[in-house]
């Protein structure tokens, strides 16, 4: 309504007061149209969040901390950390109004989100937590936790990754007990480069070139290798932001937002962006291949959500996977990201799968393969044989190669034989113990009898008592 030349609008969950302007009316209408369309697709998608029935075998360690990065299971991960940009702090993921579009929701981000349970939404933290209840590194949207190791910052570009890494090193050294810092295995996720794409058409100094991107990644990895003991690094290539251009044809609000937040989507062509993306990916691959690995440090490339287009529903883009700001990942997309990364951790290096929205059943729990429950590295990707220190016994008891779904062959014979032998030994031991105990009691009884007899008759050997 109008009040002294000002307009009062209950816009999208909050009230704003401003001079009336046709452009504002148009902007509000665009946003409402976008939100209605997105809500329709969210309802149509009917996505099943989390894994309510997590039935994987979670006892994957003997309790001894592995000394080799090629022998770590999910149970061995004690700390989880994240480096990156706004995607890794879940900007706008839970936003429902205009006033929340710039909010971050680290408690539900796909890496370290700790505000949600696994039956509510999957995050790497709450999946790993099923295997290690002492896991540290959870992020919260409500408070800054003492052991929060997510140093991703909204709006940052890859040239700021080194600074994030140095802060992570400092936090780990200062917050963790010395023994835990030295001995616990750390999982570090790196996901950055989207803001580089959004600014690459604007700079003339090449600070957002593929070469500079690779240099920043390389510096960050070397800092981690030299300063953080026992670490497994998972790197995700940045998503090609040009995929958002598909929303412009039918949703003017998205184009308006992108013009402000990621102008290069409108300034560069699809062919130009494809070329830039290809250069970034090649640089990232080269850095990972050349990085010096050792027994306590390794790096893998995870293409989990390296999308070339927004997922489709019918003939239209499925906006359910996009946050309300028409750029970042929605809560659904964060759930999918965590599940796909988790699945990829147990796939061969260089054969990890990108998410397939058409065929993947995201409600199906992905358990580590029983034949090899190690987080895959180049070294253990081939001929991987999973075993605990008691591996031979474990294999016999599980029917060979860690099977838990039945008994077969020699394992069944072994179990039956051990049962018979064990039962026999128990019976023999029981009989011997009973006989020995009776003999001892009889001797004690005889000694007491002789003590109680009159002195003159201590030579008697009768059964009076």
From TrEMBL:
SUPFAM superfamilies from the UniProt entry: SGNH hydrolase
Source taxon at top rank: Eukaryota
One Gene Ontology term from the biological process aspect of the record: phospholipid metabolic process
InterPro entries, A to Z: GDSL, Phospholipase_B, PLB1, SGNH_hydro_sf
GO molecular function: phospholipase activity
Spans through the membrane: 407-429
Keywords: Membrane, Signal, Transmembrane, Transmembrane helix
Residues of the signal peptide: 1-15
Cited PANTHER family: LIPASE_GDSL DOMAIN-CONTAINING PROTEIN, PHOSPHOLIPASE B, PLB1
Name recorded for this polypeptide: SGNH hydrolase-type esterase domain-containing protein
């Amino acid at each position: 309504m109008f009040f002294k030349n000002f307009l009062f609008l209950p816009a999208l969950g909050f009230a704003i007061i401003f001079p009336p302007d046709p452009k504002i009316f148009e902007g509000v209408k665009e946003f409402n149209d976008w939100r209605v369309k997105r809500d329709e697709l969210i309802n149509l998608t009917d996505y099943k969040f989390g894994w309510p029935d997590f039935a994987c075998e979670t006892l994957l360690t003997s309790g001894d901390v592995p000394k080799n990065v090629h022998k770590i299971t999910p149970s061995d991960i004690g700390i989880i950390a994240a480096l990156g940009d706004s995607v890794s702090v879940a900007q706008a993921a839970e936003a429902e109004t205009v006033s929340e579009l710039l909010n971050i929701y680290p408690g539900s981000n796909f890496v370290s989100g700790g505000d949600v349970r696994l039956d509510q939404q999957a995050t790497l933290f709450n999946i790993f937590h099923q295997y290690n209840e002492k896991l540290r590194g959870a992020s919260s949207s409500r408070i800054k936790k003492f052991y929060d190791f997510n140093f991703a910052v909204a709006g940052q570009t890859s040239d700021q990754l080194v600074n994030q890494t140095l802060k992570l090193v400092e936090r780990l050294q200062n917050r963790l007990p010395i023994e835990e810092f030295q001995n616990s295995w750390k999982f570090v996720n790196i996901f950055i480069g989207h803001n580089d794409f959004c600014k690459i058409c604007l700079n003339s100094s090449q600070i957002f070139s593929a070469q500079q991107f690779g240099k920043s990644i390389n510096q960050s990895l070397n800092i981690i290798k030299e300063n953080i003991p026992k670490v497994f690094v998972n790197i995700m290539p940045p998503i090609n932001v040009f995929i958002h251009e598909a929303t412009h044809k039918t949703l003017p609000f998205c184009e308006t937002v992108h013009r402000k937040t990621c102008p290069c989507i409108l300034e560069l062509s699809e062919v130009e962006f494809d070329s830039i993306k290809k250069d970034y990916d090649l640089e990232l691959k080269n850095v990972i291949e050349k990085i010096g690995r050792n027994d306590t440090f390794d790096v893998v490339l995870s293409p989990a959500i390296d999308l070339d287009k927004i997922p489709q529903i019918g003939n239209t883009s499925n906006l359910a996977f996009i946050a309300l700001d028409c750029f970042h990942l929605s809560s659904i997309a964060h759930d999918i990201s965590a599940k796909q990364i988790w699945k990829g951790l147990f796939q061969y290096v260089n054969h990890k799968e990108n998410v397939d929205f058409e065929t993947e059943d995201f409600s199906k729990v992905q358990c580590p393969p029983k034949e090899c429950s190690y987080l895959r590295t180049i070294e253990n990707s081939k001929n991987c044989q999973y075993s605990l220190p008691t591996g031979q016994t474990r294999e016999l008891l599980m029917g060979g190669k860690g099977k838990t779904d039945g008994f077969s062959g020699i394992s069944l014979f072994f179990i039956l034989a051990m049962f018979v032998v064990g039962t026999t030994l128990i019976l023999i031991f029981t009989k011997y113990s009973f006989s020995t105990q009776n003999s001892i009691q009889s001797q004690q009884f005889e000694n007491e009898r002789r003590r109680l007899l009159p002195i003159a008759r201590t030579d008697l050997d009768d059964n009076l008592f």
